[in-house]
Amino acid sequence: xxxxKKIRTYILENYLFTxxxxxxxxSSSFLEEGIVDSTGIIELISFLQKEFxxxxxxxxxxxxxxDSVNNIVTYVVSKR
Length: 80
Description:
It is a single chain. The chain has a single domain (about 5-80), classed as ACP-like (Non-ribosomal Peptide Synthetase Peptidyl Carrier Protein, Chain A). Helices cover about 50% and strands about 0% of the residues. The protein contains 4 helices and no strands. The protein has helices spanning about 5-15, 40-50, 65, 70-80. Helix 1 packs antiparallel against helix 2 (about 40-50).
């Protein structure tokens, strides 16, 4: 399964409680659209660290890295 698919599936199942791909655009801002709150971001970071064997540093916990599927894919690829 691709990085993008793993992230989409995680967000859809854990935050939108659906398996419908139509429920999420890859460019949608999690924070602006109320998909993920601050606690959810911590859970998302934990998922990313475990799933992709990366370390997310405190100064990397910014919207540019974590606020959409597209941003996360770019971030994960850069960390690997």
